[in-house]
Design a protein that fits this description.
The protein is an alpha/beta fold and about 290 residues long. The protein has helices at about 10-20, 50-60, 75-85, 110-120, 145-150, 165-180, 195-210, 220-225, 230-245, 255-260, 270-275, 275-280, 280-285, and strands at about 1-5, 25-30, 40-45, 65, 90-95, 125-130, 150-155, 185-190, 215. The structure holds NADP nicotinamide-adenine-dinucleotide phosphate (NAP).
Length: about 290
């Protein structure tokens, strides 16, 4: 049995969906009502990482775990890895991030992920780290601005990033979860090309068949917007990360998706066409915005 966490999020949702198409899968979710993956072979355990009894229930009889965490403060990786070790789990596949292997990346979020990886290593459970670059789905945060004014506002419009489709990250994780010989390995994962925010805006404009304008945000305006949504260390980490992108640190393309799945990584052109409705005027009404 494989246990999937983060199944209401961008990658875990896809991992659960892809695994459930092939066999039984168990999901740990703290808000099961938000799950979109259902079906005969899907077993759901309600609970969160801080609830050891729920973790133990979820891990009973499990051979492999797909682990997604996103708290900047909670020791969630340590909690899940300790419970997995006690349950005799044979393989823990952790969703991490590409920046952890880049010496120039020293922001709060990257440091946290390095600590999280270390906690998994120290648990004694055989591990694999899947370390993606920026998700294409982050551009969904542009949807309200696109709908209301046709304007995308972001930092550093000409800075390239080899962003990756979360579906491909999931496919790589599924290959690792269901294959052999991946223990003790870390896989950097990127999309097929480096693309800028200005180019992504142009691509969305083509898909939506309406003119969109890119407006570059200054650092101060970006900081104000980030501080309205995140605690200061997280907001600063996003700014530092954007600055590394401006300096060209996120443009490298790696062949991992092809190597692990046998299929080429999807470009932003495909992702944007498949998610056009999320940017369309009606989407806001349904989302209750
Ligand atoms: N976004 C990017 O560009 C990017 C790039 C590289 C790496 N990453 C890494 O990807 C990870 C996030 O992946 P994602 O975007 O697929 O996920 P996400 O959309 O951020 O969702 C996080 C998932 O984890 C679940 N979760 C969080 N805390 C939990 C807890 N205490 N107990 C149970 N479930 C919990 C959430 O459940 P709820 O629905 O209940 O909240 C949700 O399903 C992070 O580690 C991030 O560093 C992101």
């Amino acid at each position: 049995m494989i246990l999937v966490t983060g199944a209401t999020g961008a990658v875990g949702r896809e991992v659960a969906g892809q695994l459930s198409a092939a066999g039984p899968v168990r999901i740990l979710a703290r808000r099961p009502e938000r799950l979109t993956v259902r079906g005969g072979g899907v077993e759901v355990v309600e609970g969160e990482y801080g609830d050891r009894a729920a973790l133990d229930r979820a891990l009973r009889g499990v051979a492999s775990v797909f682990l997604v965490t996103n708290s900047p403060t909670e020791p969630d990786d340590e909690r899940v890895a300790a419970a997995a070790a006690a349950a005799g789990v044979r393989h823990l596949v952790k969703l991490s991030m590409m920046a952890v292997e880049e010496p120039g990346a020293d922001d709060f979020i990257t440091r946290r992920q390095r600590e999280n990886e270390q906690a998994v290593r120290e648990s004694g459970v055989p591990w694999t780290f899947v370390r993606p670059r920026t998700f294409m789905s982050n551009t969904l945060s542009w949807a309200p601005g696109i709908r209301s004014t046709g304007v995308v506002r972001a930092l550093y419009g000409d800075a390239p990033v080899a962003c990756v489709d979360p579906r491909d990250v999931a496919a790589a994780a599924v290959a690792v979860l269901t294959g052999t010989g991946h223990e003790g390995r870390a896989y950097a994962v990127s999309g097929p090309e480096a693309i800028t925010a200005r180019e992504q805006t142009a691509q969305l404009s083509r898909v939506l068949e309406r003119p969109l304008r890119f407006e570059e945000l200054g650092v101060d305006a970006a900081r104000t917007a980030l501080l309205a949504k995140y605690p200061p260390p997280v907001a600063e980490a996003f700014l530092q990360s954007a600055e590394r992108q401006r300096a060209g640190a996120k443009a490298a393309v790696v062949p991992t998706i092809q190597d692990l799945t046998g299929r080429p990584a999807r470009p932003y052109r495909i992702w944007s066409a498949e998610h056009a409705e999320a940017f369309a005027p009606e989407a806001g009404r349904f989302a209750g915005e």
